[in-house]
Amino acid sequence: MSADGSEIRTFLCRSDNIGVLIRDPATGACAAIDVPDAEPVLAALDEAGWTLTDILVTHRHGDHVAGIPEVKARTGAKVTAPAKAGDAVPDVDRTVAEGDQVQVGRLEAEVWETPGHCADHVSYIFHDAGVAFSGDTLFTLGCGRVMEAQPETLWRSLERFLALPDATEVYSGHDYVLANARFALAADPDNAALRERMAEAERLKAQGRFMIPSTIGAEKATNPFLRAAEPPLARSVKLEPGTDPATVFTALRAWKNSF
Fold this sequence. Notes:
The protein has about 260 residues and is α/β, with parallel strands linked by helices. It is about 35% helix and about 25% strand. It contains nine helices and 14 strands. The chain has helices at about 40-50, 60-65, 70-75, 150-160, 175-185, 190-205, 215-220, 230-235, 245-255, and strands at about 5-15, 15-25, 30-35, 55, 80, 95, 100-105, 105-115, 120-125, 130-135, 140, 140-145, 170, 215. The strands form three sheets. The chain has a six-stranded mixed beta sheet with strand order 1-2-3-4-5-6, covered by helices on one side. The chain has a six-stranded mixed beta sheet with strand order 7-8-9-10-13-14. Helix 1 packs parallel to helix 3 (about 70-75). About 50% of the residues are buried.
């Protein structure tokens, strides 16, 4: 249960997508963050006994929106999607952009435009709940691949998350934790907190679980892409400490692409 009493459930969709439901117990309103595949979302709703009222879309990629038509047909949920996605998201009822607010019952989220992975990407920040749904922008121990922008664009999007309270829970769109952790250790090998998180990730994986959500505080301490301003990360890509973090981030992202 989150800071404001909201209820959240996570589950796997496809092979590594993370399905998420957030519910306001006072009103019964419930939102899915993206719908990678209809069946697991509907199954999670049935298991919880929740009624879906909203679908909040982070971006237009097929592995995040493919299940929307079936789920909307079954539930009547209202689909909210980024305005910049155009008609690439099916069955949209409302479009949103930077600074807009969305309601799930009494729960309120601020919309952040967080481009870099793709041009239309948004994140949903439930400040009172202490929860951020970051889609494919910020992952546990990693970040999204840059696809429709310069790397600096994704860095500016990631920088915004650094200003959130450390206790903020971050729900990402995929479980790439072990692969991300292996790269993070290559880039930041002397980070004791990171080594502990790698061990935790391996334990959870063995139990069929995943390290999502994370927290902003944990990511600031261990995610190399959020630590681009720190000297060890500059040195890891053969740059001088004090180099512009956007430049360090660009080098880290290029390294990760071929890691």
